[in-house]
Amino acid sequence: MNSLFKYFIIPGIFALVFASCEDDEYGPRKESVPVIESAAVTPENFTFGDSITLTASVSDPATELTTLTYEVVSGNRTVASGEVLLAGESDEVSKNVFVSLLPNQQDNSDVQVNLVASNILKGSSTSQVDGLTGNRPIYNQLYMVTEDGGVNILNSQGGNIFQGNDLTLETSFHFKIAERLNEDNSIDYSGAVFGNVNGKVAMIDDDGESAFAYTPDADYTKVFSYNIFAFEVETTGSMLGEDDLALSGFGTEDINSESFRTLSRTLENGKTYSLFGSLANTQNVYNPDFFERTAQNKVTFLGETGEYTIYYNPVRKNIFVGVDNPSFPDYLLACGYGLGYPTKVSSEEIASVYPGHQRTHTDWGFDHVMKYVLLRRIDEGVYQGTFYTPGDNDFYAGFKPFENTGWGNEKKAGDFTFTGEQIISGDSDWTIPNGENDPVITPSNYRFTINLNDNTVHIEQITLY
Question: What was the pLDDT predicted at 1?
Answer without folding.
Answer: 43
